[in-house]
Amino acid sequence: MTLIALTGGIASGKSTIARRLAEHGAVIVDADAIVREVQQPGSPVLAEIAAAFGNDVLTGTGELDRPLLASRVFGDEDAVRRLNAIVHPAVRVESAARFAAAQAADPSAVVVYDVPLLLEARAEDPWELVVVAYAPVELRRERLVSLRGMSPADADARIASQVDDERRLAIADVVIDTSGSMAQTLSQVDALWERVAG
């Protein structure tokens, strides 16, 4: 099994890269999707979050009120650390189970872990390759405003809350520059696939 970490800042084109790799046959394990799953109503993780941040972070139906929790922890490094200490271990366990399942199903599988917070949580894991989706901050900001409807101030705050590009690029084995055309991005992804599966 080939285990690849795919990371990048918000609006860097990570999802486009993951989709193309999936088209080629890669098994995609999405860290954000796992986060949502481990925070389902009735889960131990959700109970811990409510205990740490207040029962009002749960909706009337027992689900996590994500915007409320985000507003409570955003910009507060200590709160972010406490939240990560609850969520990251559960995500690590579940992602490891998915890697193992992919390997059991196909020992030669190429597994791509789509993980925004690689540097914050998983940089030391034994990845065969670390792939970084890259686009300049100005372009990512423009994407957040035009494609996701964020205000410029919100876009700047989201970008500023993440690890900077310099640190991300420093751990990259492969950089896929998504600042050009879609065809240019996809050709880089295709070349990556040839490298890992060819």
List the helices and strands and how they pair.
Layout: E1 2-8, H1 14-24, E2 27-30, H2 31-38, H3 44-53, H4 66-73, H5 77-105, E3 110-114, H6 118-122, E4 129-134, H7 137-148, H8 152-160, H9 165-170, E5 174-177, H10 182-197
Parallel strand pairs: 1-3, 1-4, 2-3, 4-5
Helix pairs in contact: 1-10, 2-5, 3-5, 7-8
Your description of this structure?
The chain is α/β, with parallel strands linked by helices. Helix content is 58%, strand content 13%. The chain is built from ten helices and five strands; from the N terminus they run βαβααααβαβαααβα. Strands 2-3-1-4-5 form a five-stranded parallel sheet, sandwiched between helices. Helix 1 crosses helix 10, helix 2 crosses helix 5 and helix 7 crosses helix 8. It is globular, with a radius of gyration of 18 Å.
Unreliable spans are: none
The overall average pLDDT, rounded, is 93
SSE string, helix = H, strand = E? EHEHHHHEHEHHHEH
Give the number of helices. 10
Strand order of the largest sheet: 2-3-1-4-5
Radius of gyration: 18 Å
Number of strands: 5
Compute the separation of the termini in Å.
14 Å
Beta-strand residue percentage: 5-15%
Note the main sheet: 5 strands, parallel
- Structural class determined from secondary elements: alpha/beta
Helix-residue proportion? 55-70%
> So what's the overall shape?
globular
